[in-house]
Protein: VNX1 protein
Organism: Sula dactylatra
Amino acid sequence: DVPKASEPQGDSDGPRRGSLCDQHCAAINNVQGDLGDVGCHLHRPRGPPAVSPHSCCQQHSEEVCESCVVKTTLTAENAVEANKLSNNYKFGFKKWKSHVTARPWEDRSEIVKELYSDLNVIRGSGGSTLTCGNVLYLLLFGWWLSLLYVLMAAMMFITVVGAPYGRFCWDLARYFLWPFGKVIQKAEVPKSRQTLGACEAGTGESSALLGGPVPRRWRPQCWVDAGYWQRAGAMVWLCLGYPVLALAHGLVCITAWLLIILIPVAKLSTRTATRVLLLPPEQVLVRRLRMTEVPLEGEVILCCYRAVNPYYYKYAIDGINVFAVNLLPLVLVTLVLGYVDSHNHLTSSPVKFTLALLSIMPLSYYIGMAIASISAQSNFAVGAVVNATFGSITELTFYITALIKGSREGNRCYAEIVKSALTGTLVGCVLFVPGLCMVIGGIRHQEQRFNSRSAGVSSALLFLSVGGVFAPTLFSKVYGKLVCGECHNVTQNPLGHYLCHNCHFDLMENNGSLYYNHVQPLVYTVSLLLPAAYLIGLFFTLKTHSHIYDIHISDCHMPGHHHSAVVHWSRWRALVILLLSTLCMSACADLATEHISPILTNSTISQYFIGVTVLAMVPELPEIVNGIQFALQNNLSLSIEIGNCIAVQVCMLQIPILVLFTIFYPTNFTLVFSDLHVYASMFSVVLMNYIFMDGKCDYFQGTVLVMVYFILLAVYFFAPSPSGC
């Protein structure tokens, strides 16, 4: 959502010393891009620039430009957005793409302006109205809406007193069959015929859907001076015609809104139900526009050219993306079905599990938006506390509820599912998230560069965290006793080969002395060292070595950016939404774990596969979308940091918290993973570090990461279920 003129122009050959100074001088002259430009770490002078770009470059030595190769200059519209952009580059902070403040209208692109415009603007020649989207409208809504208006016109003619409304419905029947290129206008009538029109003269409040005026309700006291036939016709219309048509348009509005690309149809139906159908019939004029026609006189109420606009995925309401708005009712449906229909009379357990899992996606979005809003409006300490407290709340809520249910039922399968989900999140964020971002970003950009030093810090922490997490597992493999469930002699010779099933390393030999005296203290030690290493990483990247990122928020704004910040969510509102979303997340996680049992027992798919795919990646979908958007803007550094930060938090925060939870609430969770989890995680981390060594990548390297991820998924798919499930 940035003007084309402000998009950064990348160089396929990488940054050169001469171009760095040119870009810095361009920033001084107010032609700097919106995000991702590389420039010298120099502030803009307060006065107007008095030097030319050429002389500017002569003033700075090549050593200065050489030292700022890794420095990134960001242009923010206000202080709040500057804090959000700066937080995106801080280790341990949630990366958020969407704006937390309202963007100035004049700074938006024409495509986005069209999304928020009312359907009452007459444009010039817009080409043919015979498009695939308009034909889709005809097939989905146009034919039966037109038929309904024809039937309503016949009924109004039968009542005699409603004959004016019958002609009104006949005109609208022709309009809604194909409304494109036509206009509904409020015609000016003589004062003697405006008795009923006076009831509609006032303008109401602004509509949240259309952003246009909404008329006041029909006031019967305005009919005192009207004639008898006019009052009778209006009464028949309001009792028989309007409710049916308003209900039909409400159905069209909801359906089109949920389909998102058909939101223009939703606007069309809403304005019809709230404005057109409440006008007196003599004030409504339906006309077909012609290319040579002069501008119409009077107010234009409806004028639509396209039924489908694919850019409505960018549409936001109060800063909330339209997808998150549409999925919010799903959360209410899930909670009602889950707690009211506890005996599965209305729906089955798999359906409730699916609904609960899908409800986690919008709740994750609201939690992320709330964290970003609070962090952008607060100081560093408050932002760090909020990110550390609520950054992993989505995953931890599900893991803890699953462990509690497994402990109550005495079922070890829930602990294995949690381990699979932890491994799946780690592998997915290391391979799939950066790989997918590299593929999609590589389609638009031939080669993408990123800050290899910041990626190296995350990689080092990832190596440390993976080694610490799997240290108890390796210890148990070395000192544990291999125990098998049953063995069969494949040869008749007693000394021959034996085929054994359900083999595992027993840590409870000699009354569990190995586990309680050796493995468990090692687990507690690792659980203390990993959060300490995480804090050291925060102190290193944010305090002593913050120059690794060296983010410079430039004060040279683009034209039109001199505006005060109008935040979408205030700090208190964001805090309330954060707490409510967390509460709903806990309820949905409880429902998901409550109804996952039939899937685990009756499904032929390995429980490993269910854990590493569905339970691990569905909560991370909002983060994946953010990473893709950053990659499309040639900002691959943030796309990589999204996956690395989640993986580091899984090992250094989430797993130690689960271990700490088992101390106060004993469960079947032990920090001993299967061999498959160990090999998949270590191989993924090694491959990621090999790919990210040179600080640049393309779509081929991203394809390698994605393919390796799918190969590991195939291994999990064909793997037998863990013992105890």
